[in-house]
């Protein structure tokens, strides 16, 4: 942990329930200045994990959601016109390097190819960020860390990370928490008592078992929390389940009917 970081009371950290040794791995990576790649399905806790770890390590966090128009300049910065003058404005990656912060690039496989050119010298032992347009070369301080994530479920051949990029990162695979961990997470986030969350988690796991056959992706922890939140606020469970656990998964009427059937059988 950096000397400047004040210890943060656990109660003010973004809530994150560890599912394995991912917190220790993150701390080791941070201490040894190694970049980290998180893989996992949508809504399984990747973003929450990074927010939790950044707070725990006392570092500011810059999060960028990557998309297919995202260029290297969006990360590093650009000259802007301001009242007749041209002024340089740091992008989030540059700011994180200058401040010794954590930079989190979400869905990194979506970013344009020129982004990898920027990431490569920053993620090997050089740890530098050359800014061609200003002529500067920034050296990343001890406290800078790069974290990227993507969802291998959506990955296609065109969008895979190149080996020369992925082999610059430590990697950790995320999945949905096991039932005994997911129940307190959903109860804690929604306020619905654990006893009423138990059947919802059972249903989620029955629906997750259909992944790959009828469904592209299993129902997320995020959707389970939505469902429990609706029930907690007074909605009938059948209605909440349909709105939060069935409809978001598919547009196909036959598959939807099948999912509703699974819900009936699972919930009895
Ligand atoms: N281990 C966990 N501890 C605490 N909360 C969790 C955990 N896992 C999931 N959650 C809850 O699930 C929600 C969704 O998680 P999050 O947004 O981090 O998913 P994600 O993996 O980043 O998804 P995406 O790939 O779609 O961005 C969070 O808002 C949080 O409430
Ligand atoms: Mg996320």
Element order, helices and strands?
HEHEHEEHEHEEEHEHHHHH
Strand percent estimate: 15-25%
Question: Regarding CATH, which class of the largest domain?
Answer: Alpha Beta
Structural class: alpha/beta
Strand order in the largest sheet: 2-5-8-1-9
Distance between the ends: 50 Å
Q: Radius of gyration, Cα only, in angstroms?
A: 21 Å
Describe this structure in words.
- By secondary structure, the protein is of the alpha/beta class.
- It folds into two domains: 10-173, P-loop containing nucleotide triphosphate hydrolases (Rossmann fold), CATH 3.40.50.300; 179-267.
- The chain is built from eleven helices and nine strands.
- The strands form three sheets. It has a five-stranded parallel sheet. A two-stranded antiparallel sheet has the order 3-4. The protein has a two-stranded antiparallel sheet with strand order 6-7.
- A hairpin with a 2-residue loop joins strand 3 and strand 4 (85-90).
- Helix 7 crosses helix 8, helix 7 packs across helix 9 (221-232) and helix 9 runs antiparallel to helix 10 (237-246).
- It starts with 21 loop residues before the first helix and ends with a helix.
- The relative contact order is 0.13.
- Residues 1-5 have low confidence and may be disordered.
- The chain binds adenosine-5'-triphosphate and magnesium ion.
- Adenosine-5'-triphosphate binds at residues 15-17, 19, 40, 42-48, 106, 151, 177, 185, 189, 221-222, 225.
- Residues 182-264 form the CbbQ/NirQ/NorQ C-terminal domain.
- Keywords: ATP-binding, Nucleotide-binding.
- Residues 35-169 form the ATPase dynein-related AAA domain.
- Belongs to the CbbQ/NirQ/NorQ/GpvN family.
């Amino acid at each position: 942990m950096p000397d400047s970081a004040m210890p943060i009371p656990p109660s003010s950290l973004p809530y994150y329930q560890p599912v394995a040794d991912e917190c220790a791995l993150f701390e080791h990576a941070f201490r040894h200045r190694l970049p980290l790649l998180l893989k996992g399905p949508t809504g399984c806790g990747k973003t929450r994990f990074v927010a939790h770890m950044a707070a725990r390590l006392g570092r500011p966090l810059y999060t960028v959601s990557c998309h297919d128009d995202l260029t290297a300049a969006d990360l590093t910065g650009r000259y802007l016109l301001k009242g007749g003058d041209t002024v340089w404005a740091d992008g989030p990656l540059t700011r994180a390097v200058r401040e010794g912060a954590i930079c989190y690039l979400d869905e990194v496989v979506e970013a344009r190819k020129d982004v990898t050119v920027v990431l490569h010298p920053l993620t090997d032992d050089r740890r530098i960020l050359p800014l061609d347009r200003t002529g500067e070369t920034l050296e990343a301080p001890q406290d800078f860390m790069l974290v990227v994530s993507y969802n291998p479920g959506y990955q296609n051949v065109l969008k895979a990370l190149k080996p020369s990029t992925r082999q610059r990162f430590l990697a950790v695979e995320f999945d949905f928490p096991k039932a005994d961990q997911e129940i307190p997470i959903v109860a804690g986030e929604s306020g619905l008592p654990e006893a009423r969350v138990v059947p919802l988690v059972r249903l989620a796991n029955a629906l997750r078992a259909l992944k790959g056959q009828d469904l592209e992706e299993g129902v997320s922890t995020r959707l389970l929390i939505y469902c429990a939140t609706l029930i907690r606020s007074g909605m009938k469970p059948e209605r909440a389940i349909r709105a939060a656990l069935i409809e978001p998964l598919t547009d196909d009427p036959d598959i939807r009917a099948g999912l509703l059937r699974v819900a009936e059988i699972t919930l009895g």
